[in-house]
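[09:14] KT: can someone run the structure on this one? pasting the chain below
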Amino acid sequence: MIPPLPTDIVRDAVRRAFAEDLTGAGDVTSLAVIPTEAKARFEIRSRDNGIVCGLQPAMEAFIQAGPDLSLDVLANDGDPVEPGDIVLSVDGPVREIMLAERTALNFLGRMSGIATLTRRYVDAVMGSKAKIVHTRKTTPGLRAFEIQAVRAGGGSPHRYNLSDAILIKDNHIAAAGSPAKAVRAAREYAGHMMRVSCEIDRIEDLSSVMKAGADVVLLDNFSLEDLQAAVVQAAGRVILEASGGVNLDTVADIAATGVDIISVGALTHSAPNFDFGLDAV
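[09:31] RB: done, structure tokens below
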């Protein structure tokens, strides 16, 4: 099991989701066709194979929809699910359930899609030392949820935001003058607790950034041959991260070169939605 997200983050995100749905007169469809006294039991079932994630915001959606709803959670984030598996059931006023339905399913579908895709990458590099990590290519305002989903799928954390670590990329290098100059400036700025990572796009720069004091070297769009050469040259003195050109067809070969980290933007920017349905029983 993975630790839950902070409650205030989840509550705020669900409130914002409801604010998108509930302007003006509210849920006019339910108000028009569902009797006030109508009550029923509904279940959220998986319609696909994969990894479930997003139960915390899904529960919060029903909690915020009405105080008279009773919830039963039947899975944990990170659990494998198959078509027909029940992950959550809810009893109570039907109007309140309909109010929360789409918000709950949106969080579940988005987060489970990310978790499922992440697990495919993690499985693809099984047997190597490489860790699969996310990037900051996330949906604005939903990064905490999407990174939580990566963790549920077995991925590892990268930096969460711009304050977590120094990551020198091509535009920083252009401003600084060279990769080595950028790393030396970062080392002077950083305290002893902060890591410095530098992106390079040619193996000729590896030696200079290591000598300048980089803790991590990001190998951007390196060929497999150059990745292998970088691993030999670094000899464990720095952490090597492969990035660029990573997909499910290439990730196993990249991992086999011996790199430590493989960062995959697709985990969060290209994961397909996972199909769940809410059905009356």
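[09:33] KT: thanks! The chain has a mean pLDDT of 97.
[09:34] RB: yep, looked fine to me
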